[in-house]
Amino acid sequence: MLWAYELDMILADSTATVIPALAARQHPIIQSLRTLIEQSIAGNGPLGSIESLQFERRQPTRNEDSVLASFARDADIIRVLIGDPSRLMALGGGDSGWATLAVGLSGPDQVSVRWHVAKGKTPELSIQLLCEHGRICIEIPPEDRGAWKVSHQSDSEASDPLLNFPSETTDFQPAKVLLAHLLQTAHGKNKGSSERLIPPATWPDAARTIELAETIPRSVKRGRGIDLHQEEFSELGTFRGTMASLGCGIIMAGLFIVFVATLVGGVARAAGWDFGERLASIWPYAILTTLLLFLVLQFLPFLLPKKANKNADAEGSFTRDS
User: Fold this and answer.
1) Are 134 and 161 contacting, i.e. CB atoms less than 8 angstroms apart?
2) CB atoms < 10 A from the CB of 82, how many?
3) 197 and 307, same structural domain?
């Protein structure tokens, strides 16, 4: 996914707007499901507390590239429903493990999410919200296009959990949704978040999902969960990290030079070697010159164009993991 990082760097120096093809988040059913999840987290949901949120992605091809691409698209819906995940754990991988890959995520409200891939004739997605007193199941057709189906099972006599869901769902056309958003953006008529609770996806949203997908191979390789930190990369942050590493290297090199100079000076005095004694005596000046050069480099960011730094801080969208 190197292309995504290259695109992110290009956007840092550009005023262009990227509109990701992630229209599924704007389906009314996703909005209703998020409302139900928020109610359950608040303690007043019709199905009680949430036990887990499960995603089953069915597709005919299940190699590494296709599985990660599907997860990246589904991860956008996960972020819309529970927020940015704070931890990711993947099981599978290898030559045959991608066909049965399972990914566990946890959100800021400790909602447990499980995503897994399965064999299917066409690429389809099932979302199940498992709660204390029932479940909600959403069937999404291939390419998110067409009629979405919603069903539920409940073991309580409480209010119908589907009251807030659309009574009838017309065929969803992601291309029309994206085209409408593109025209609104081109004419500067984007609707505010007050008019649309779930806004259209932006490049930072797409970058987050790509970063989540890229974390899966590392989690599989390490065999453990990975904590995700929502820290944005920027040129200034990268420069500071480089300078910190360089500073540690200079300190270690300085200590080594002091040790070598002391040893050479002692040997030169004992052997009457004038050149070696003079060479050993210049080590303070060598270290001082190096430190002064290092300090001068600290002012380099102030010499860069402020606009570039500002764009880099605003557009840097990829996160760190540990």
Assistant:
1) yes
2) 23
3) no
CB distance 12 to 316 below 8 Å: yes
Q: Helices 2-12 and 306-315, interaxial angle, to 10°?
A: 140
Sheet holding 226-229, edge to edge: 149-154, 134-140, 124-131, 50-59, 112-119, 102-106, 87-91, 226-229, 320-321
pLDDT tens profile 248-275: 888 888 788 878 878 887 887 788 787 7
What residue type is 209 in one-letter code?
A: T
Domain that holds residue 176: 2-229
- Residue among 158, 134, 185 at smallest CA distance from 16: 185
Let me know whether 97 and 220 are in one domain. Answer: yes
Report the C-alpha gap between 264 and 251 in whole angstroms.
20
Mark whether 193 and 91 lie in a shared domain.
Answer: yes
Q: Where among 204, 229, 254 does a domain terminate? A: 229
pTM: 0.72
Please indicate, yes or no, whether residues 139 and 207 belong to a single structural domain of this protein: yes
Cross-strand pairs, 150: 138
**Domains held by the chain: number:** 2
